Every structure is written in C-alpha cells, then in structure tokens.
Amino acid sequence: MAKILCITLEPIDTKMAGPAIRCINLAIALSLAQHDVCVYTPYPTNYDIENRVKLLSNLANNDKFYEEARKYDILFIQANVLKAYPNLTKLNKFLVVDLYDPYLFSVLSQYQNDEFLMDTSYRLMHSVLDKHMLSLDFAICASERQRDYYLGRFCTLGRIQAAIYNQDPTLRKLIEVVPFGLSADKPKHNQKVLRGVYPNINDDDIIMIWGGGIWDWFDPLTIIEAVSRLIPKYPSLKLFFMGRNSPNPQVEIMSMAEKAIALSIQLGLNDKHVFFSQNWIPYAERGNYLLEADIAVSAHFDLIETRFSFRTRILDYFWAGLPILTTCGDDLSQLISTRKAGISLNFKDVNAWCIAIESLINNNTLRAELAANSAALRENFYWSNLAKPLIKYCQNPYKMPKLTKLQTPSLLERIFSVYRRGGAEAIIRKTKEFIKQNTPV
User: Fold this and answer.
1) Strand ordering across the sheet containing 138-141
2) What is the mean pLDDT of each run of 10 residues along the chain (441 residues)?
3) Chain-centre distance for alpha carbon 359
4) Other Cβ atoms within 10 Å of 347 Cβ, number
5) Sheet holding 342-345, edge to edge
C-alpha cells in the first residue's frame, strides 16, 4: 500500500470544475485499490470525500505544504502544480503528472484578441508544461490522440532516450491513457429545478441544456442563433446554460460568455428562451438539471484545441442518457456519431443546427433511439475501470531513467558508429563519400 498525495490547484467544494472533479475521483479509485490517499487544495474547504480519502487544504505557507508532501511516497499532480510548488521535484518522490488538459491550445484561444497576452501567457505555460514533462516518472492523459501529441512533445524535449525505450518499447510505462470518467451510480432526480420552477421555463417546454462553462474555444453563438430562427415555429423551445464562468475565483469570466449573453439580449431571447445560470451548478445537483432536459448541446470552433480536447461535459450527457447535438472535430463527437448517440455537425453551421434541432423536436422515435444509445455509452467511462493504468503504476511505482541532455555525437562517436555497423569497409566508403561531397567543383 502506497501513501499518495493528489494535488490540485482548483477549489474542492460543492461547486467544482473538471480538474477538481477528476482529482477527487481518481483519488477515490486509488483508495478503493487499498492505497492511503490524501487530496490537497490550496483553497479552504469543508468538502467531505468518500471512501477513506483524506482532504488537506489551505496550509498556512509553502514550508508547511512541503513538510506535508514529504510524508508521501507518490505525488499525483495536475500539469500546472509545479508552477505554484516547484520544489516538489526536489523531494525525491515518485512523480505522476496528469496531462488530461492540453492547456497550451486553450491559452492561444483565450487570448487570441490580445497578441501580447497570448504570447506571454503561452510562453509561460509552455515552460510550466516542459517542467512537468521533464520531471515526471509517469504520466496519464485523456485519449490516444492526446497521447500521440504528448509523445511528440516528449521526443522534442529529449525525454525519450534509449534507456526509456529499452525499458518499454511501447512507451506506456511513460504515458498511459486514463480518460475522464463517470460514477457507476445513475443520476437521480431529487427535485424540480427547471420545469415550472425556473422563471419562464414551463413543464411542457422543449429544453436544450449546455453543461459546464462558456469558454473562449466554445461556440454558443451558433446555437443561440439557431434558437432565434426556430422560435417563431417552436415557441416552447428553451436553451439553458448551466454555467457562465469557472467556480475557481482565479479564472475570470471569459469573453465568449459575455458575447453569448450580449447576443441573447440583442435577439430578444435572454431570460425568455435563452437562460444563463447566475451561479455554477453544484456538482451533486447537476443530475436534476440534466434529467429535466430533452436535448444536450455542445459547440466549439475549428481550432487545434478542438482536435486534442476531451469534452468532459459530454460524459455527463452519456450519464443522463440524453440525445446529443455537438460540433465535429474531437474524439467524443466522433464516438457520438459512430455509436449514434446524437448528431455531429459542422463548425458554425446555423442551418445544420436548425435542421438537427427540428428533427429531434418532431421525431420522438429518433430522440428516444439517440438517448438510449447515449446511455449505453456511460458504462465505458466508469472511473473504477478507467483508473486501472494509474492504479497499476501506484502498486509498483518506478523511476524513469535519469534524463541526460541530448548532444550531437562527436566525430569520434560517429566514426565508431559507422565501424559498428559495417566495419573498416564502411569507414572507407563513408570517407570517400564525404570527400566527394565536400570537394569544390
């Protein structure tokens, strides 16, 4: 049994974003595998984590934090933690880094309208990510597509060397896939939260729901425009956004959220047909909102962020068994299309959204079929199954071979390498080729 400290920089409370939710659930999975697990957040909290997982928070200063970290065998951290606590690498612990969020691409999207902020933020977070990838003993990410991306970064950083390859030619001892997951418990509807309760949302309305926040790489505008076009024909159509900004106080409301609200007001839809929750929906209550919806939606732009993203809100749509309308381009939209759990649409295509929404409104059989297929996908994403590569590492942790700086082979090394491959004849042949290539014409 290992002692494991899981560290996130996100608040852990009733209202949580994806990184905190992931940290908690992976900690629970590790505890169920009989490890001694503690979760740390720098924010004060009274949150109670189940399954023997301890929660540590808001230590007075960094010295106390490092003193606590020294008590553990394995440090499981998210890929921004070393920015706040760089000395974790000096504790000689097994270091596991969670790379599920390819945040470099998000930074480019978030600050695309301010080149100075984009450049400085990207360079800062680039160096932060490098530090994590150069220091770790084991990494996890959310998909095989992400794994390919990170393997490329590992190669560029010189992290993949002969000693690591010889240890495991598949490189899965270096980085494995642990997607975002779901509870095996199905959602329950404990109280009415939208129908007949929320102002201007009625019992018989057609409700489309947007889970999570409105980030700058998302495209709520196309869906709002589609709703505007459909309202004359379907006046009972409603669109509800479960969150506008992050529950993390360090994350400001993003410009796309402001644009979405402005467009809703401009089109005369705000608080009539389009609704933005003023507060982040508590994690334990999200099932009530999802189960009152008819259709789940998510839209994004054609960005590099899209290709490597893993839309965690989509998993909640599977969990609730909702038919899904989403934009194409990422792993989960491809899964939705393949398994007929919804409809995947082209980027910024308002007409396609109108057609898709109308088809689900008018065809109850199609909506039920997509919903059933969506619900069938949830069993693929239970935390207990997904966490197995992480559990396996923690049961028998290992250090990666020591990193050495890659240098171009010296002339003597190159000559000896040629000799090892072909003997004296190869050296003579290569020498003649060199002379010929370097003789002036």
Assistant:
1) 54-57, 36-41, 3-7, 74-78, 94-98, 138-141, 175-177
2) 94 90 95 94 87 84 93 96 95 97 89 89 93 96 96 93 91 97 92 95 97 92 98 97 83 89 97 93 92 97 90 93 96 95 97 97 96 95 95 96 79 79 80 75 60
3) 31
4) 16
5) 274-276, 237-241, 206-210, 295-298, 324-327, 342-345
Do the domains spanning 3-181+387-395 and 206-381 agree at the CATH topology level?
Answer: yes
Q: Give the residue carrying structure tokens 């969150």.
A: 243
- Is CATH 2.60.40.10 what the domain over 3-181+387-395 is classified as, yes or no? no
Domain ranges across the chain: 3-181+387-395, 206-381, 409-441
Instruction: Check residue 312 and give its pLDDT.
Output: 87
pLDDT at position 279 is 85
CA-closest candidate to residue 242, choices 202, 286, 199, 206: 286
What is the per-residue pLDDT for 51? 67
The Cα–Cα gap between 126 and 122 comes to 6
CATH number of the 206-381 domain: 3.40.50.2000
Instruction: Return the pLDDT at 59.
Output: 83
